[in-house]
Specification:
Number of domains: 1
CATH topology: SH3 type barrels
Order of helices and strands: HEEEEE
Number of helices: 1
Oligomer: single chain
Shape: globular
Largest sheet: 5 strands, antiparallel
Helix content: 10-25%
């Protein structure tokens, strides 16, 4: 299994914090910004929801950046 980069660790920590505190997070994937509250984190994906979508699934490898609201 490939080792995660330090930036990947920061992103995963931010996603875990969103899930724990129920605060919104914005993930950036290939130039698109997706705002959501994280509901689950798997080995290769993160799942969330927002006002427009009941379920959003993003591959963690595709996340370029993340920020918490």
């Amino acid at each position: 299994m490939a080792q995660q980069s330090p930036a990947g660790d920061w992103i995963m920590n931010l996603l875990r914090a969103s899930m724990k505190t129920k605060k919104g997070v914005t993930v950036h994937v290939k130039g698109q910004a997706i705002s959501m509250i994280v509901t689950a984190i798997g080995d290769h994906y993160v799942e969330g929801r927002n006002q427009q979508s009941a379920k959003i699934v993003v591959r963690t490898a595709a996340i370029d950046a993340a920020m918490m609201a």
